[in-house]
């Protein structure tokens, strides 16, 4: 039966015309007259029914006025009466006309059938179940039906965002996700929430009808920082998002070969102009060949020599440009292997492990026995009930250094660097005068902290996809930079870039979080 809501949708259509509206009114009047003749009408829900993929859906229909439908022939179908989604006749289900994809997944809910209310239960909803259904009631020669709209919502995987590699002037980033239905929307945004336009977007469907999406973007701005990719379901508005941090060293630098290219283009133009001028002189010399034989011979030799020199200079410039381009590509390949490439410019630090005993244990020999020097640190090597702290006795006051730390199966730890200010007369250099720049793990949470004087001036939560097994720490004293990398995944974790070093820097490790460390005496 044609409903008022369906009529409103048709009137709002861009194809609507006054003649079409009159025809719709006549159809509605005829439908109402036919309902009066048949003695009943069928009503469905005014709004679409929305269910999650894999759950059960209930599609209700109601006779008006209320009357028993137990003796009626009830049929649920999609586009044609047969084969049908479900057939109820003579008080029981009739499976002979049922569509194969609905067998074993449908059931008629008859709790209110004596009052004219029935519902079709579809179990384990699939993507192919999405769309319109018609509930058809037949009583003798009279029949009526209503339309029920079913919207299936599939919330797929969270987007996976990763860098593809260098692009002209920037970095290409790819965002992919699968298992979504219907076709999802993809949106890029920067750390300020400003939306960015995708360079390309491809969506495909698998054998179950679910969508896989791949969208790419070329980032030109090296100061962009975090880049977020969001996947949104158009029906429910629900979305999933993932972010990626884009370190500035990954962006192409203005290498010397580029500057050389900009400077050599005018020179090449001058050389081409010189070659043209040489050709003109050759033409002029030929015209004066008869009158100036001796002069022509001299000029010809001179022009030949100039042409050879120009061609040789041109070939040398081309060779130099190719060599510099090759160096640029090699540099990019090294950058993709960060942090291994960084190790070529940083010096491996000799770090001393000092497992300090609680202050109430005053045995100096025991303290001495718990000190060892190593290049392969592991926090998982516990010895007794003590705090594990690593110290470099000399400290770092300049240069570039790095060290690696194994953290397998440790539930709580803190690692990083602390700064010890220059000693002034009458001042103490205990824990309260030190500045810590560390990352910590406490349970399933990761944080980056800057601590000093028993307070925390920076606290930032970190989102790590996988638990790191080994972390490498890079310290660049001159650039005031401390960076942490996951050696297992080869990914960047966090960087302290706003530091201003003035004292000595020491490696720091502890089998406790900073909250516990600051609250206990040392």
TrEMBL record:
Region described as Disordered: 286-308, 357-378
Keywords for this protein: Immunoglobulin domain, Membrane, Signal, Transmembrane, Transmembrane helix
SUPFAM superfamilies linked: Concanavalin A-like lectins/glucanases, Immunoglobulin
One protein family per Pfam: C2-set_3
Biological-process GO terms, alphabetical: regulation of cytokine production; T cell receptor signaling pathway
GO (cellular component) term, any one: external side of plasma membrane
Annotated B30.2/SPRY domain residues: 325-522
Subcellular location: Membrane
Membrane topology: Single-pass type I membrane protein
Residue stretches of biased makeup (Basic and acidic residues): 298-308, 363-372
GO molecular function: signaling receptor binding
Major localisation: membrane
SMART domains: IG, IGv, SPRY
Domain Ig-like: 54-148, 165-245
Top-level taxon: Eukaryota
PANTHER family per UniProt: BUTYROPHILIN, BUTYROPHILIN-LIKE PROTEIN 1
UniProt similarity note: Belongs to the immunoglobulin superfamily. BTN/MOG family.
UniProt name for this protein: Butyrophilin-like protein 1 isoform X1
Organism of this sequence: Ursus maritimus
Protein encoded by which gene: LOC103682267
């Amino acid at each position: 039966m044609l409903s008022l809501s369906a009529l409103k949708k048709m009137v709002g259509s861009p194809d609507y015309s006054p003649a079409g509206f009159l025809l719709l009114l006549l159809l509605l009047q005829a439908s109402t007259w036919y309902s009066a003749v048949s003695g009943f009408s069928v009503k469905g829900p005014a709004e679409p029914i929305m269910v999650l993929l894999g759950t059960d859906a209930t599609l209700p229909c109601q006779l008006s006025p209320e009357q028993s439908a137990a003796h009626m022939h009830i049929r649920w179908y999609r586009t044609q009466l047969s084969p049908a989604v479900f057939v109820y006749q003579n008080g029981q289900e009739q499976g002979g006309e049922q569509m194969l994809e609905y067998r074993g997944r449908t059931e008629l809910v008859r709790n209110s059938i004596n009052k004219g209310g029935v519902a079709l239960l579809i179990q384990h909803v699939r993507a192919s179940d999405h769309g319109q259904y018609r509930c058809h009631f037949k009583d003798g020669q009279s029949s009526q039906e209503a339309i029920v709209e079913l919207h299936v919502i599939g919330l797929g995987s969270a987007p996976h965002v990763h860098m593809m590699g260098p692009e002209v002037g920037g970095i290409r980033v790819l965002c992919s996700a699968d298992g979504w239905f219907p076709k999802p929307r993809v949106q890029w945004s920067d750390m300020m929430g400003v939306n960015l336009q995708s360079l390309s977007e491809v969506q495909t469907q698998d054998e179950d009808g679910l969508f896989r999406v791949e969208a790419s973007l070329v980032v030109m701005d090296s100061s962009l920082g975090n880049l977020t990719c969001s996947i949104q379901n158009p029906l429910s508005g629900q979305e999933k998002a993932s972010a990626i941090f884009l370190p500035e060293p990954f962006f192409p630098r203005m290498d010397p070969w580029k500057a050389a290219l900009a400077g050599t283009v005018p020179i090449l133009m001058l050389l081409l102009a010189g070659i043209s001028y040489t050709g003109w002189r050759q033409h002029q010399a030929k015209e004066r060949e008869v009158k100036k034989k001796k002069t022509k011979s001299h000029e010809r030799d001179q022009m030949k020599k100039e042409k050879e020199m120009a061609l040789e200079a041109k070939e040398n410039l081309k060779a130099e440009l190719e060599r510099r381009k090759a160096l640029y590509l090699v540099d990019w390949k090294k950058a993709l292997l960060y942090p291994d490439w960084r190790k070529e410019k940083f010096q491996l630090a000799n770090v001393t492990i000092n497992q300090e005993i609680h202050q109430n244990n005053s045995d100096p020999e025991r303290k001495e026995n718990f000190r060892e020097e190593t290049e392969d640190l592991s926090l998982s090597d516990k010895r007794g009930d003590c705090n594990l702290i690593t110290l470099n006795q000399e400290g770092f006051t300049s240069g570039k250094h790095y060290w690696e730390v194994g953290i397998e199966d440790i539930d709580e730890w803190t690692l990083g660097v602390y700064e010890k200010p220059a000693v002034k007369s009458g001042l103490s250099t205990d824990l309260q005068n030190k500045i810590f720049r560390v990352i910590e793990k406490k349970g399933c949470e990761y944080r980056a902290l800057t601590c000093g004087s028993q307070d925390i001036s920076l606290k930032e939560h970190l989102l790590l996809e996988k638990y790191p097994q080994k972390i490498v720490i890079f310290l660049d004293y001159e650039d005031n930079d401390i960076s942490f990398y996951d050696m297992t995944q080869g990914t960047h974790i966090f960087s302290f870039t706003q530091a201003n070093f003035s004292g000595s820097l020491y490696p720091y490790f502890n089998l406790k979080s900073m909250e516990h460390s600051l609250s206990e005496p040392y």
